[in-house]
Amino acid sequence: MKENLSFTCNNLEEIKTATSQLDRANLVPLKIDDGGVVKDVENFKGIYNVTQGKFCTAVIPYYNLIQHKQYFDNFADSLNKLGINFSMVIQQQGNRAFADIEFKDRNLKFEKLNEEFTTGIRLINSYNKSTGICVMPKFTRLACTNGMVITRMEKTLSVKHHSKLVCDIQVFIEKRINHIISRNEDLKIWVSESIKDSIEWRNTCGILAKLFKQIKHREEILKRLGIDIIAIKDKKTKKKNVSYVWTDKTKKKDKFTRWEIYNAITHYLTHGEQITPHIENLFQKRAEILLTTKLEKMPKIEVTI
């Protein structure tokens, strides 16, 4: 079985067929070899990925192991019972699984801002404790189909598997659905403020350097703003000295709004090549910092032009 899988599903039957191909895991007893004597480890159990034939991690005895299929199927079942029209993109990477749900008839329009978004949910589960049971709002900006995952909204929830909240996964799911499909006032405020907020282009480069230290990612984001990176490696120190230039000087801008910078990031995360689900989710959190923090409060660095 491949560790990395991806499926696009448009109905409940397709979802259940896809989730049947996701990895399964079991809680297993742990044993230790104590000088040739095999003993039980009583205060821990192990999670074993049955599909991959690999040990994942040690956990406490009352850990609630949630199967990827169980989590995603139950969520889809609940949405179906509520009569909500949706599609689901399911991805598995290693011991993590992601499901992006898009509601097909619940678009969000901000008339005064001239912006429209599709609404949805991102679900995450893991077998190696790298994440808990995660439920977070996801929006897609229709103007450029950029995916936006927002974790700072009140609706977002990440719960550890040993929590009592996930003992009954169905009850947990139904409570989260009722909460997450409600109002989206926070997003409206953040978009409105970010459109008004602007900063000099050199400082834009500095902010992005703080958020995205790897040049290959920062380069792709700046390219979407019309800026190129020139990196020269010092022969002695092996460090890279970076400077920034305009791709086309006739299109040079003095300032960028926070909304423009944020959309350059989400465009790369949505449309860029070779972005894994884990990296995309990690970078969405960094992009969110920019969306929800006024530019004068963002950390900056000096940049070379």
What oligomeric state do the depicted chains represent?
single chain
Output the helix-strand order: EHEEEHEEEEEEHHEHHEEEHH
Estimate the mean pLDDT confidence: 89
Number of strands: 14
How helical, in percent, are the residues? 25-40%
Output the number of helix runs.
8
Extract low-pLDDT stretches: none
Structure description:
By secondary structure, this protein is an alpha+beta fold. It folds into two domains: 5-22 and 64-183, no CATH class; 197-297, no CATH class. It is 31% helix and 34% strand. The chain contains eight helices and 14 strands. The strands form four sheets. Strands 1, 5, 6, 7, 8, 9 and 10 form a seven-stranded antiparallel beta sheet that branches. β3 (37-49) and β4 (54-59) form a beta hairpin. α2 crosses α3 (169-180) and α7 packs antiparallel against α8. The chain is globular and about 70 Å long. The N and C termini lie far apart (49 Å). The mean pLDDT is 89.
Gist of the model:
By secondary structure, the chain is α+β, with helices and mostly antiparallel strands. It has helices at residues 12-19, 68-81, 169-180, 185-196, 201-211, 215-223, 258-271, 277-292, and strands at 5-9, 25-34, 37-49, 54-59, 86-93, 96-110, 115-126, 133-141, 146-149, 157-159, 198-200, 227-233, 240-246, 255-257.
List the helices and strands and how they pair.
Layout (H helix, E strand, L loop, with lengths): L4 E5 L2 H8 L5 E10 L2 E13 L4 E6 L8 H14 L4 E8 L2 E15 L4 E12 L6 E9 L4 E4 L7 E3 L9 H12 L4 H12 L1 E3 H11 L3 H9 L3 E7 L6 E7 L8 E3 H14 L5 H16 L13
Antiparallel strand pairs: 1-5, 2-3, 3-4, 5-6, 6-7, 7-8, 8-9, 8-10, 11-14, 12-13
Helix pairs in contact: 1-2, 2-3, 6-7, 7-8
